[in-house]
Design brief:
Elements (H helix, E strand, L loop, with lengths): L3 E10 L2 E11 L4 E5 L6 H8 L7 E6 L13 E4 L11 H11 L5 H11 L12 H13 L5 E5 L7 H16 L3 E6 L2 H7 L2 E6 L2 E7 H5 L4 E8 L4 H5 L4 E7 L2 E6 L3 H9 L3 E9 L2 H6 L7
Parallel strand pairs: 3-7, 3-8, 5-6, 6-7
Antiparallel strand pairs: 1-2, 1-4, 8-9, 10-12, 10-13, 11-12
Helix pairs in contact: 2-4, 3-4
GO molecular function: ATP binding; ATP hydrolysis activity
Organism: Tessaracoccus bendigoensis DSM 12906
GO biological process, one term: response to antibiotic
Length: 294
Amino acid sequence: MNPIVARSLSKNYGRFPALKDLDLDVAPGEVFGFLGPNGAGKSTTIRLLLGELNPTAGSAAVLGADPRRVEHRRRLGYLPADLALWPAMTGAQTLAFLANLRGGLGRGEIESLAERLDADLTKRVGELSSGNRQKIGLISAFMHRPDLLILDEPSAGLDPLVQHEFWAMMREAADEGRSVFLSSHTLSEVERVADRVGIIRRGELIAVEEVAALRHKRMRHLELEVDGAITADALAAVDGVRDLVVMPGRVELNFDGDMSALLAAVAAVATLRDIHTSEAELEDIFLTYYRDES
């Protein structure tokens, strides 16, 4: 059974369609990256999966249950993007309180996670930096070893060393057969830990790709050294040209088209002196999905 299943899931706010006909499956033992800019529909999707919102149309199942029911929630771990905690309580008191809500939890798992994340549980939450408060939120999401983790921008405020430990925690959960739904716009995070990625734009899921497939897209980053007057118009019409920058004697672009067509367009207006090519960054590949069709 897939821990997340959505079919034609939609949500309107008045006349505004925040989410449109989302079809989604997250498999057991998978880290699924959910990518999109602010306002794309990521948070609306998560709120529907948590049962905080009722869908306008369509359906979703989380751990085999309707999101609005409660029996599955002991098996769910959640970290919101706007984490709010009790400022007067220490980290240890906060986690003990949350553990008691779940029916009790051994201190060993909490202490182990605190050590891994270098979290100080003795200070009041109100005295902690945003990154250290985020560590408390991560511990609360992981401490009961849930079957499904839903994490919304979880790396906010974490320093690089702690980020690496957090990434290892997600991969360990997946290796144990548990699942992670990771909403993020941090591409390096998704590239390191996700098995598949869903890309959402303006409320629509526009692509679902394996991260390995994204890395092997044919897009290349090209730097062309030329003699002669060359303009952006001379190359922009070539199919596959993206992110074109024209400078005196030099052109830089990302390209996923027919190389002979590009070279012919260059030769028609200038003399090619040298060409440098490399694989485009994952970010460049990702951004191509956000270009308007116009």
